[in-house]
Write a structure and sequence with these properties.
- The structure is a single chain.
- By secondary structure, the protein is mostly helical.
- Among the domains are: about 50 residues, no CATH class; about 55 residues.
- About 75% of the residues lie in helices and about 0% in strands.
- The protein is built from 6 helices and no strands.
- Helix 3 runs antiparallel to helix 4.
- The longest helix is centred in the last third of the chain and has 55 residues.
């Protein structure tokens, strides 16, 4: 029994298209543009198909005009984030010193914020205790002169 994979020719249309794509990529962005213009001249749907492939396949900007540069730049950013050495000793030592200094500043700032929160909490608590003491003193002063509370109302009701 034969399956479709047994009868398929090695290579085929996909392989030919991949080889053509690789060939154009080796020659750069201008080869893609020339192929597109030639496609429009010979048979406009071919040129339109190449234009669509270049735009949506990112061929115009990805492989032929700077993929290597973009990949190297992305690696540099990754190395910065991961703490990996970049290969430049002077920059690596500067980066380590700057990171150490920033960590110290962050710790000092967090300590300052904690002290600020504590002092704010203490001030609020002291203000609450003073207000409570004043209301208690006022109630004690007027408590002897005031009539007894009405038994029909409960405390906290309005």
């Amino acid at each position: 029994m034969m399956t479709t994979t047994d009868t398929a020719r090695p290579g085929g249309i996909r392989s030919a298209l991949r080889r053509g794509e690789d060939w154009l990529d080796e020659r750069g962005k201008w080869a893609w543009i020339a192929a597109m213009v030639l496609g429009f001249v010979l048979f406009w749907p071919v040129g339109l198909a190449l234009l669509a492939y270049m735009i949506w396949g990112k061929q115009m900007f990805a492989r032929s005009c700077g993929q290597r540069r973009h990949r190297d730049h992305a690696w540099g950013r990754h190395a910065m984030r991961a703490g990996q050495p970049t290969g430049n000793h002077a920059f690596d030592s500067y980066k380590a010193e700057a990171l150490r200094r920033l960590e110290e500043e962050q710790e000092a700032f967090e300590t300052f914020l904690q002290r600020l929160r504590n002092s704010k909490d203490k001030a609020e608590f002291d203000a609450f205790m003073e207000e409570r003491a004043r209301t208690t003193d006022a109630q004690d002063a007027t408590g002897a002169d005031a009539p007894p509370p009405d038994p029909g109302t409960r405390r906290g009701e309005y």
